[in-house]
Fold each of these.
Amino acid sequence: MIFAVGIIAGWWGTKRSTAPQQVTSQVILSALRERGFLVTETNVFNEVITITSNSESFWKKLLWGQAIKAYGVVEVNLGVDLAEIEGSDVQIGQTTIRITMPSVRIFDTRLVGDISLENKQGLLKRIFENDDGYNSAMLTMLKRAEASAADPKILATANAKAQEEIKRLVGYIAKDKTVDVVVREAAE
């Protein structure tokens, strides 16, 4: 008898606690912000660069000139910082949820592997200011890769992937609603 009362009490207690949870903008914000930065596009660029010192005279080039040729592979990750979504960016209707997300931006740029480097230096530069050119070659490669990743087609693809991923994440929370994600217009 005590055992039966325990089973009924347990069933009744769990039945009351399984009431459907109401989806609010705060619930959605918490779930999205928990993800942090959402990387949606990774691009790999083969960068070949040439850096030469712009000296006006032949003797200055011979003594202090420098010519660097370098090759490397650079990875650029694009995505959305979900922490930038505000409470006003989440609008909940009867059947739909509309989320306004920030536009994608570069999350991280890094060199993949080593740089192949060829450095020709002038006589005095080699003696007094021996610079292997690695740092300037790496910085130039990273800047060029970031400029290539800022192509409007690449950004549009990354935005579309971010919209789909946010729809999928919010769809787990609000299964009975349609999720619409739009990109926030950039402030100019």
Amino acid sequence: MLNRRNWVVSIIALLLLASLAACTAAPVAVPDREIAIDVNTALEAQNKAMGLMSGDVNWTEAEFSSLLSTLLQQNGGANSPVEAVKVWFEPDNQVFIQVALKEGTLPAGDTLDLAGTVGVEDNHVVVDLQQVGAGNVSVSGASLAPITAQINAALADPSLGVAANVATDTGSVTVGDCCVAGERGCWLLR
């Protein structure tokens, strides 16, 4: 007959094995295209963003990554662990993100890598993460649901603004003017 202590140990072992089963020793594979990040490219991307009021804007990976990295550096302050963010775009709204962290931020490495898709639900941008990794360890599957839910909750903030089309292609993202509510590919901006 099993006593309570054995049940607790068995349940803890089962939970530990289930969580470790979601982890793999393979890093998230990001595209091998080089992305140069610099302030001048960020300024060009910011100037392009002004075009959102009158139509479509197309950013290259370097423009989007430079703009995002510069904004994070300016608004994050000295205590921000993020040094840069590189974003690769592939067809069908696939996105790969590599966050370069300050040395020693994570014990598993100095990058945080994400792979997934971006879409729209109820006029809000949503992400569907398929894989997240740090160093040589990655997590995929159902264990990403809480992370995805937190990101999508932040993206559902009504202060993000008006709906627009979003489409990715190899090396670029296009953000367009207003679209029909509920249409796939809409993104809220303000």
Amino acid sequence: MTYPDFAEALQARICADLEAEKIAHTPRKRREADERRVEILEVHIAALEERVATAEVLGEQRRHEAETAAKKIAALEAHIATLQEAIAKAESLGEQQRQEA
């Protein structure tokens, strides 16, 4: 084992010992309360993750619906333009026939 490896192993062991000592000196009721709080937070996180997933699916649906609506609007506007051209031609033809009559 090289000196840097030995130093890292020693440092990890010291950290583990300090953590174990901290846990050992933490009153049992406090540890249980902390564990319960962790459980509650984990349940809350799971619920939030589920909501995020649902929101992402809904967002994708809304995006798709918006794209579909935009395409439909473009098609309708093109159709309106075609109809307006037809109306203008018909009015022009009508005016021409009126003048000829």
Amino acid sequence: MLALLALTLAAAPAAPAVPALTPEALKARYGGLRRLSADVVQVKEGRYWARPFESRVKLRYTPERVEWETVAPVRAQAVIEGGALYVAFADGRRSELLPMAGDPRLAALLRFVRALLAVDLAGIERDFVLSYGPGELRATPRPGSDLALFTGLRLRFGRDLEIASVDLETPQERTHLRFEHVEREPAPDAARP
């Protein structure tokens, strides 16, 4: 039986290797991104969680607005618009994060979220040192960055350079975001054959 299994595996074609990422390839794929939407499975683990906590999210990104709509287990929507961050609830209530409005860390975080979702390498490099490997981009915080709350960041891409997942780490927590049903609208120049 083991010999038959070994023969079957040996005869099966190998999956094509994921190529090493390059800044040029990512810039060509994501440069000038106008719109991105995806279903996201978010799993949080860490010191404050008794067990991994999973939520389902609908993400909608444009350069002007980011909507992070949690659809399960509790419905809520976080919106980044301009320099503001607010939470919109299913009943129509809206809660703005006014106490943090003047905090430079909030401004840095909002800038980072936009750069991350757009795979804007220059924007990410403002606060992180980047390294590239097969199918993934790793980032470590620059000393003195306003985003030093993160200890690590990893973006994984499929063979077609479509975003597959993002891992964010802080000293207390790890968040894994798995992207599904990704749709994006490139810049007009990138859309031409």
